[in-house]
Amino acid sequence: MGKLVVLTLLGAALALIGERLVAFRQRVNASREVEPVEPQNCHLVEGLEHGSEDIDVLPSGLAFISSGLRYPGMPDLAPDELGKIFLMDLNEKNPKVQALKMSDDFDKASFNPHGISTFIDKDHTVYLYVVNHPDLKSTVEIFKFEEQQRSLIHLKTIQHELLKSVNDIVVVGPEQFYATRDRYSTNFFLALFFEMVMDLHWTYVLFYTPREVKVVAKGFSSANGITISPDKKYIYVADIMDKNIHVMKKHDNWDLTPLKVIQLGTLVDNLSVDPDTGDIWAGCHPNVMKLLMYNPQDPPGSEVLRIQNVLSDQPRIGTEYANNGSVLQGSSVAVVYHGKLLVGTVFHKAVYCVL
């Protein structure tokens, strides 16, 4: 009888795992092939060869680009390259990238930049906040941007027990920011099976100030990109595994109230907002299985969506760029500035388009 019970439980467990694996393949769009949508005036950005995972653009048109991310489970095509922050002036007719110099006292050898966000103080000083993964841990680094010297002065490293597996960040005040946790387990492969395959919703959004750190939204499968509306009233959060964007109202005490969820049908990574229109631009992965099982002969594609009328009952969703990986692999972010589009990737190149 005991052996029969064990076999029955084992069979049920294997059946559950099998069902979850099938469901997981559907969630990551494992069979999807992207249809190309490529504007005519696009070209690869020279000098961005090893990733451009996140991009943030100042009102002046200066774009900060994080490059060289090493993330568990993702391809690493340049293991000897150090993480860098690049600058690109989108006002130029043919903009070039330049790697920013960093303080000598900052540990550049372990710099592993992920999500980034800028903040402009009352005296017009520009600060860059960077999610960093030294030794695969999570910190937030604060830099002061020196425009004339094209350099970053390191000011502070922020660590906290809730700042684990941090993916992205949006700064809303001096040393005040929202951040996303993309997996609960700090071990990626445990998270992949127990959280993603089993479809657990354990990740969250937190709010940080030096005086208080708190979880302000939870129940995400994998909270990823985060940004804020131009009027500063709403926070947008991408849940990559659930293929959607959560729209949340921001309160005076920094808490968030869920308002709506926009389903996209593709695995959305980082988000940006067009300051002129309020439209959300999303860098997406049309088929994440091709990222997890990287094959240069059949590489992961890229996809950029634009979401208009975000707060309406029927937001308008359009594909602005899509490629099967022949040009751009693993798109993670898209930003626009005065009719110009810049698309970054987790580990590959970047594309610049004049729309």
Q: State the CATH topology of the largest domain.
A: Neuraminidase
CATH architecture of the largest domain: 6 Propeller
Shape: globular
- Tell me the total number of β-strands: 25
CATH class of the largest domain: Mainly Beta
User: How would you name the CATH homologous superfamily of the largest domain?
Assistant: TolB, C-terminal domain
Helix content: 10-25%
- For the record, give the distance between the C-alpha atoms at the N and C termini, rounded to a whole number: 70 Å
Structural class: mainly beta
Number of discrete domains = 2
Catalytic activity: an N-acyl-L-homoserine lactone + H2O = an N-acyl-L-homoserine + H(+); a phenyl acetate + H2O = a phenol + acetate + H(+)
Protein name: Paraoxonase
Family: Belongs to the paraoxonase family.
EC number: 3.1.1.2
